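Customer escalation, tier 2.

The customer says the design service returned an amino acid string that "doesn't look like it belongs to this structure." They asked us to rerun it and document both sides in this ticket. The original structure tokens are below, unchanged.
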């Protein structure tokens, strides 16, 4: 199962992240996972939300540039070594991970790790073949 991630391109200036979160709040959008990567001039805010289409519409209407990407959201045990075992699986299968971030939101004792994989289809097959639980929402 895959999930839609929203990427928001932001100038690296004071208040831009606040504007995004206020825009989503006014639209009644709930954040499920969030990550930001920045450089001196701009940032890429990555979001998983409860209502993707509505969030994209609200952000675009507010003047933000967005893009949607398919990502894999994998549920793992919230114990030491769980992520290491998953990383080893990708390494042995030679699947490159472009980036990842996590949310502790999910079933008690579980974490959800969001992956952007270089070969998305191959990555999903490996996850499925190894019995890993993929979230379609959380």
């Amino acid at each position: 199962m895959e999930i839609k991630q929203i990427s928001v391109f932001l100038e690296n200036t004071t208040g831009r992240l606040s504007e995004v979160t206020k825009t989503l709040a006014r639209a009644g959008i709930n954040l499920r996972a969030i990550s930001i990567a920045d450089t001196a001039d701009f940032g890429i805010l990555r979001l998983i939300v409860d209502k993707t289409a509505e969030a994209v519409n609200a952000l675009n209407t507010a003047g933000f540039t967005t893009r949607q990407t398919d990502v894999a959201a994998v549920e793992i045990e919230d114990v030491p070594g769980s992520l290491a075992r998953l990383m080893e699986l990708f390494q042995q299968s030679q699947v490159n991970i472009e980036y990842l971030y996590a949310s502790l939101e999910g079933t008690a004792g579980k974490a959800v790790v969001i992956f952007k994989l270089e070969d998305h289809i191959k990555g999903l097959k490996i996850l499925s073949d190894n019995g890993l639980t993929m979230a379609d929402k959380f």
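Tier 2 assessment: The sequence is consistent with the input. Residues 71-134 form a domain with the Alpha-Beta Plaits fold (CATH 3.30.70.260). The chain is about 30% helix and 40% strand. Sent an explanation to the customer and offered a walkthrough call.
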